[in-house]
Amino acid sequence: MKVSIERAALARAVAQAQSVVERRNTIPILANLLIETGEDGVSIRATDLDMEVVDRAPARVDQPGGTTVPAVMLNEIVRKLPDGALVTLSTAGQTGRLTVSAGRSTFQLATLPVEDFPQMASADYATRFEAPAGLLRRLFEKSKFAISTEETRYYLNGVYLHVAQGQDGPVLRAVATDGHRLARIDAPLPVGADGMPGVIVPRKTVNELRKLLDDDEAVIRVSVSDTKIRFETPLIALTSKVIDGTFPDYARVIPAANPRRMEVDAREFAAAVDRVATISSERSRAVKLALEEDRLLLTVNAPDSGTAEEELAVAYGDDRLEIGFNARYLLEIAGQVDRDNAVFLFNSSADPTVMREGDDPSALYVVMPMRV
Amino acid sequence: MLVHPRLWSFAIAHCDCDAFYAAVEKRDNPDLRDRPVIVGGGVRGVVSTACYLARLRGVRSAMPMVQAVRLCPEAAVVRPRFAAYEEASRAIRALMEGLTDRVEPLSLDEAFLDLRGTERVHAAPPALVLARFALAVEREVGVTLSIGLSENKFLAKLASDLDKPRGFAVLARDEAVERLSARPVSDLWGVGEAGRQALARAGIHRIRDLERWDIEALRTRFGSLGERLWHLARGEDARPVCRDRPIRSISHELTFEADLLDHDRLDGHLWRLSEKVSARAKTRGLAGRVVLLKLKRADHSLLTRRTTLREPTQMADTLYRTGRLLFDSVPEAGPFRLLGVGLGGICPAVDADRLGDLLDPDTARRRAAERAADAIRSRWGEAAIVKGRALR
Q1: Can you give the pLDDT at residue B107?
Q2: Residue A110's CATH number
Q3: What is the mean pLDDT of chain B?
Q4: DSSP letter, residue A38
Q5: d(Cα A280, Cα B94) in Å, to the nearest integer?
Q6: Model pTM?
Q7: Are residues A151 and A232 in the same domain?
Q8: Contact A350 B356 (CB under 8 A)
Q9: What is the pLDDT, as a whole number, of residue B381?
């Protein structure tokens, strides 16, 4: 194999691929990237057996072929090469090493055989559709904070992506919950997505996906089967297994008629929560919300360090209410509101509270209160 | 009559009750006084404590009960009564607190005392204070103990073993080094089976083998363990006596009378163990974030599972449910010989069980029920209310 690639293109492809590689590996080949030549470039592939990413970079192919090299090492080297350099990757048959050269720098890297690199079996994708990157980004970015890390309820360790009935017809919906918070985000249903099976996209895939969805203009090709989901741009393809489990019936736990409504400027609210929470050594401590006639009093009482309180003007017209929350949960949920006011809907101090972004029906959050 | 050139200068003591559980049983039941007594559980259980009469027949703690009974068939086998031991332990602890504010309990029947600087308060040197203390324990609590006195914890602990039972021993560093020299290195504090093997590979079998090494070489090869061993082999130990060593975990386990395959019965045991762990956490005002499950297969091999909760708990219900999930995640059906439940990641109870679970709306109700049951039990006794599950 012998190819020449512009450094920036190689750096992008290698960096994206190597982030899939687990830092600790018991199987040596999983620490490697698979580099293969194509018609007018190279593809760089990485896998952790649950997820596979293939990055393409335009290159001049002098001699077709392939090899595998340690991902972290190659990434470091390419990152340190001078900007604008033309990088040549070549393997000389007998040594089994990959030569990386750019300008006056030359590196010889140990390789492992291409045949040993695990290929993810291709799936029969039942549904294929295209969606703007921005739409998918919103679905995943706004729900991922609620993904659970609990191993015992593994089916909560991802975002449940499925087709649901929204207010005005079918929507593409992302739901995540850890039992304490829940996020439900809707987007207009893309053409061709209607028959999509509901799948639980694992947390690591959601995090990797972020890089594919950066470019607002990009159109993403999505393919879904019962066991796999695949996201593609012209340069990157990310294929992931989905979590093999049943996502709980979330609709059952979303309160439909919480009567007490509080509207507050989300950023002011978040800043105030953040300030009062400073007094508690651990972020897990409770913030108490006391509501009375257009007035919200936030208090934190930390036995070892002291107390804090702050008053906020809000729109609230119901009976007096005192309710406690985990400060971090409240911050995360308030941080989701980007344009409108945050609207909180309470029932009692023991029941789940709903939060919405203004009148926008396409985003809904639920948070459990804390005993205070 | 105890004579030792440094008797009056040492001030670190290790106090160790003699066959503590058995001694409490004999105290409370005079019929047992002149009989060999073995405290332990069931036919399949192991010996917790054997009194000195039983020890004469070769019975040892941690020995399988079957073997113990074979060695000493006339022994009275008594099920442990932890409440009584805890009460006796508290009484002894109170007497210790009267000697110094630096008491480090190791278990119900063992503690380190640092008596440095107390000579003027008591108008007596530590050795005398301790001798009076031992008599006070015999008189007021009704059990005997052995005391080791030296210059550090390691040597004090060695010393308390020298003159058991009802003993008082003083050990100076040079004497200790001489005594230790031929002992296996695994006798040193902190050397488990893995450590023993690693040391054996380096040719270190007995404590005297450590003398050939310099401290740097030991540290390079064995890390902090190596450094500690170098000091211990020379009778040096800089650990302070610290009161209230934080509790790291709370756990209970049960060895079954016969290997158990019946999942309904295992489930019943899981619940009762969860209740015990929970009760201990509640009385101590503690909670934990990590749930541990321990199983022993019929061939004695160990199987453990653990998981971290979103918030700490002290609730039997949460422990049981999480333990059950862990149990169900084990890909084997059994039979099992032992089941254990534990709580780790210990923290104060104020942080526990405050969040509800959206997906399990009954959580709050079950917690309220458990708190109500606890209140009833604290008023009317342990058996006043039990769950149906506990009867399985």
Answers
A1: 83
A2: 3.10.150.10
A3: 86
A4: -
A5: 35
A6: 0.69
A7: yes
A8: yes
A9: 64
A298-316 per-position pLDDT tens digit: 999 877 778 899 999 999 9
Residues 72-101 of chain B whose Cβ lies under 8 A from any Cβ of chain A: none
The domain tally of chain A equals 3
Residue of B nearest to A152 (CA): B325
- Indicate the residue among A94, A116, A138 that finishes a domain: A116
Residue A9 belongs to what domain range? Answer: 2-116
Question: Chain B contacts of A371, Cβ < 8 Å?
Answer: 353-355
Say yes or no: A182 contacts chain B, CB-CB below 8 A. yes
User: How far apart are alpha carbons B217 and B226 in whole angstroms?
Assistant: 8
Q: Does A284 touch chain B (CB under 8 A)?
A: yes
The tokens 């809904």 sit on which residue? A364
Q: Is A350 on the interface with B (CB under 8 A)?
A: yes
Q: Which of A219, A252, A285 is the last residue of a domain?
A: A252
Q: How far apart are CA B123 and CA B107, in angstroms?
A: 30
User: Do A311 and A236 fall into the same domain?
Assistant: no
pLDDT confidence band for B245 (50 / 70 / 90) = low
Q: Using 50, 70 and 90 to split pLDDT, how confident is the model at A343?
A: very high
User: Do A58 and A76 fall within a single domain?
Assistant: yes
So what's the pLDDT on residue A198? 94
A259 plus A149 within the same structural domain: no
DSSP string over A226-277:
SSEEEEE-SSEEEEEEPP-S----GGGGS-S---EEEEE-HHHHHHHHHHHH
Question: Does one domain contain both A260 and A352?
Answer: yes
Handedness of CA A253, A257, A259, A262 (dihedral sign): positive
pLDDT at B241 over 90: no
Each residue of A234-249: pLDDT tens digit? 889 999 999 999 999 9
Residues 6+ apart with CB under 8 A from B381: none
Residue A186, domain member (yes or no): yes
**With 80 as the cut, is the pLDDT of residue A69 above it?**
yes
Inter-chain residue contact A180 with B326, CB threshold 8 Å: no
Statement to judge: residues A134 and A104 lie in one domain = no
Q: What is the DSSP string of A278-329?
A: TTSSSTTSEEEEEEETTEEEEEEEETTTEEEEEEEE-EE-SS-EEEEEEHHH
Closest chain A residue by Cα to residue B365? A350
Structure tokens at A314: 């809000």
B363–chain A nearest CA distance, Å: 11
Task: Name residue A127's beta-bridge partners.
Answer: A224
Q: Assess whether B211 carries a catalytic annotation.
A: no
A190 and A163 within one domain: yes
Beta bridge partners of B117: none
Active-site choice (B74, B86, B110, B370)? B110
Higher pLDDT, residue B51 or A214: B51
User: Do B147 and B168 form a contact (C-beta atoms < 8 A)?
Assistant: yes
Domain match, A342 and A284 both: yes
Q: Residue A370: which of B326, B329, B354 has the nearest Cβ?
A: B354
Give yes or no for B356 touching A (CB within 8 A): yes
